[in-house]
# Entry
Amino acid sequence: MDSQLHVYNSLSGKKEPFTPITPGYVGMYVCGPTVYSNVHLGNCRTFISFDIVYRYLRYLDYKVRYVRNITDAGHLENDEDVGEDRIAKKARLEKIEPMEVVQRYTVDFHNTLALLNNLPPSIEPTATGHIIEQIEIIKKILDAGFAYEVNGSVYFDVLRFNKDHQYGKLSGRNVEDLIHNTRSLEGQSDKKNPQDFALWKKAEPQHIMRWPAPWSDGFPGWHLECTAMSTKYLGEQFDIHGGGMDLKFPHHECEIAQAEATTKKSPVNYWIHANMLTLNGKKMAKSTGNNILPNEIFTGDNTLFSKSYAPSIVRFFILQAHYRSILDISEKALAASEKGYHRLMDAYQLLDRLPIGETGDFDQQQWLKLCHQAMNDDFNTPVLIAHLFDAAKYINSVKNGLQSMDAKQKKSLTKYLNAFLFDVLGLELPTQEKGSDGKLEQTIDLLLNLREEARLNKDFDLSDNIRDRLQDIGVQLKDTPEGTAYTIE
Ligand code: AMP
Ligand code: ZN
# Structure
């Protein structure tokens, strides 16, 4: 490898060389979804961003333990610790069990991420499966004097913590500003100060998601689950913590405070935040309705776009922007990505069929170096893709007889295109698309080849029979000088 991986650390605001705590191993925690509705494409963008981090670390031969949780309790409707639990609310509205809500949207989350070809994490723990661990952390925070109990609820004392720690260091806020800017919750909350946050909430009588704890029958605060699960599976200090930009404050800030209050150590070496996907220039969000579901794009069943776009094209579109830039989705951008994706895949598929020449006219060493440099520069997928287009250009010029490719070059170009396109970027060939009908196209191609063979053998009965039977089931053939084209009705 010609250069070292550098990662932009939100904590320092700088790109830093990546050095894991244990050489050869990486611990990575990413905040997972709150499973109370279908994941929208904005959520998927964040998970794809971390799928790239995971894939590239594996490409670099790190052994990665990737933990991504499922939030199935404790996430209230707003950040001020008031309002209903999102899952309980959905259950109430739909008149079903909270765990039915959780099951339904966890399945949707898994299916959607699989369609987008995201690798599953190594461990996927749930908040409700870690209530005991969360209670233990609250006890420790209380013992250390950084929390207080009021009426069966426990709150983190931000001002007390800030006396000898720095609350706000990740999001660049200071406590004085927070005091001025935090909404007063007069009468709605037991908190001493509005900027304090809940570690444990006493459940109201009608609240169905409740667990026994020393302070009350209640439920944990949202921020606590990630501290409990990351510590349990990755230790008190680990390498990477990720999530969307909107989680920096208060969620991640609170995670740092909880961990430092109990261990006196900074929990995470590299904080990575993925930027937002926007629609019509505004953040895609579940709560505002400004969103589109991946499935609506894959099937074309939406009012925003004139046609459907396959999962690999959507993934490619997302990867054509750097994960730290805002990305706006539009028909024009998707259509451009579709073209680019096919240009790249066509070139890849052509490679195998190219004639072997005497010389290799492509500076592959330099090309490989540039590809690695791109990914080593904070996972810069758009720059990597630009280099992949250079390789595609070379392949096309060999096809057109303008340049030559020798056997050695063909072998190694195939190897590295495989690695970058499929292992690192996680793209799929058009015919491999899950959810698309790749198998149908392959079957029709097979029948067309058999028909061609029959024609060459002058077995016109058979060749006409194949054509007519295909026509009966709605596959129209059209013979052209370049070969047989077809349309499916
Ligand atoms: P949630 O289920 O709301 O907790 O969100 C799951 C993940 O999606 C979090 O990491 C969020 O930061 C992220 N996210 C939410 N909205 C967007 C968006 N519009 N673009 C990118 N990521 C998002
Ligand atoms: Zn989290």
